[in-house]
Design goal:
single chain; 92 residues; mainly beta; four-stranded antiparallel β-sheet; 4 strands
Amino acid sequence: KFTPTGSITLGWRGQDDRIIIYVRDTGIGIAEENHEKIFDKYFKNNSMMAGAGIGLSLCKRLTEAMNGTISVKSKLDEGSCFEVNLPRYNGK
């Protein structure tokens, strides 16, 4: 809903003992002062858009439960890139 035109790219890469999953879009972007707030429960970057504001807070909770981190890089009118950084499973 935040990328009405353009593209959304999903991918992953390995880095040492970590796996990084990313989602990159060319959507509306997020103002820098909201980069940390967007992971708060019920925070909505745009109150006029549909949604309850729980999606990214749930992503953060699940990521942290797996000993990982989630981050965002974004600029208004240029899009966003979210990265989930997780430890590799070593079978133990």
